[in-house]
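Researcher: Next sequence.
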Amino acid sequence: MSDIDYIDWILNSDLLLNKDGLTMIEPADADNEEHTVSVKCASNAIKDMKLYSFNTAETRPEKLLPFFNQRREDPKAPKDLNRFSDYVLLVQHDDGLFVFIIEMKRGRHEDAEKQIHASESFFDYVLQSAMRIKDENGYSDFDANQVRYRRIVINEEHSNKKMTKDKDIEVMDLDSVILHKCYKEFRPIAYCKRN
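Model: Next structure:
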């Protein structure tokens, strides 16, 4: 069993998007058309990828986190309690498991960091649970300390001149929240490096 299969065994399969269609969607709104980004492998070093969606009506944080206060009247739920990012992408790379926490934004993206950090807290819990039950489930080799987070804000960009290039990624702090400008494709391979 690989790390990605072990985590996939733990997560709710209802959140998993079809492997043949690793596509992220920012729904249309009053000012913008739908923004669709396909996740592309682009490397033999990537052995598997799994994309989980948290931005549909069925997977809103209220349904994912039912033990939190959901009230909209006084006493309302504390501000930002139910924030969550749009997607979690698991990437099994030759160098280990990478967890991409992805928020899609058009235009302004100041609040994306809060959503990403909220999802990271949730995924910390997933990894702690994986550690707690690994021996009982025959996967004692799993080590959550070897899992690497990548925090990505995908910002819609129509101009190729401003898109995020691999050479730009080489100088980035991969442990920070990274603004990735793209239009139709996201290739995680450039972010799959150990620091």
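Model: The chain has a mean pLDDT of 84. The two ends are 25 Å apart (CA to CA).
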